[in-house]
Amino acid sequence: MNSERDKYLQSAIRFCNAFSQGKEIEHILSLFSDKHPISAIEHGDPHLAPFLGREFEGRRGIKNYFQIIESLLAYENVQFSEYVVDAMERKVGVKGKGRFIWKSTGKGWDEVFAYVLDFDEDGKVVRYQIWSDTGSAYLASRE
Question: How many CB atoms lie within 10 A of CB 136?
Fold first, then answer.
């Protein structure tokens, strides 16, 4: 069972590193399952930002999510810690922190956020959930 735990932990670390290092969207998409339906959701009120509160499904949907993020936000010093692995459920929760900047206004904020990543049997992401500081993002988006 420990090897299963390690597999999901290493998969989560790979995914988080790809995001924190600003890897290309295609690289991030390669970390998602090609055997199962995939989805991403950043929880929050969809009136606050176009990437909040809606499920992005399939490769096209998830690519669209990351394109929206890339078009609106810059980020720096993103770090992840406190990985919690449930190997039986193939889930990993992780805490992240970093500095985010709304590109059109140049306003930034320091944020702590959380991911829950669900994996397939091969250690590929099938569901990506984010809980973030949506209020700060909204305020930064205002001129």
Answer: 17
Please, what's the b/e burial string for 125-135 (b: 16 or more CB within 10 A of its CB; e: otherwise)?
bbbbbbebbbe
Q: The tokens of 112 are what? A: 């702590």
Cα 33 from Cα 39, distance rounded (Å) = 10
DSSP H or E stretch at residue 9: helix 2-20
This prediction's pTM: 0.94
Average pLDDT estimate for 78-103: 97
Q: H-helix or E-strand containing 67? A: helix 58-72
Two tokens, residue 79: 């770090």
Q: Does residue 48 register a pLDDT over 70?
A: yes
Going from the C-alpha of 45 to that of each of 29, 50, 51, 62, 137, the distances in angstroms are 25, 9, 9, 18, 11
Backbone angles phi, psi at 40, to 5 degrees: -140, 140
